[in-house]
Amino acid sequence: MAEISEVNFSSFISGLSPCAFACFRVLFENARGKIVKDGPQGTYEAHLDQVLQEIGADEVKTLADAIREIIQCKVDIKKNDFLYFYPFLTSVGIDAGVIRYGIHPDIEVVIPTITLPENG
Fold first, then answer.
1. Domain limits of the chain?
2. Which among 37, 45, 20, 35 has a CA at the least distance from the CA of 111?
């Protein structure tokens, strides 16, 4: 199995609007909390109202636009001599007031080691 030697989230930090970066941060930190507590789960949930409040948005459309931006960014992961590009979200959906999203296993394992800046 190839060992991860480097992880780069710079496209999220430099490429997202402030609202999208705030959304990314909320989803990232939500997943980090669950990974640290219970280990990688593949799929995570966040309450829609809480996320809207934390990113300062009033409408689900604003959140959807932020998620579209997040989907466009890639995580760069170096394994041995190869550089891989992964989307942060492997799946995402909003249903019954809950955001459900998936994260690739290669990203899940490094999330506890990553510190995001306060602002993108």
1. 4-113
2. 35
User: Could you tell me the fold of the domain covering 4-113?
Assistant: Arc Repressor Mutant, subunit A (1.10.10)
Write out pLDDT tens, residues 11-57: 898 899 999 999 999 999 999 999 999 999 999 999 999 999 999 99
Residue recorded with tokens 């990688």 = 40
β-partners of residue 99 are: 46, 94
Residue 95 pairs with which residues in a beta bridge?
Answer: 98
pLDDT digits (tens, 9 = 90+) for 48-93: 999 999 999 989 999 999 999 999 999 999 988 899 999 999 999 9
Half-sphere exposure of 66 (CA within 13 A, CB side): 24
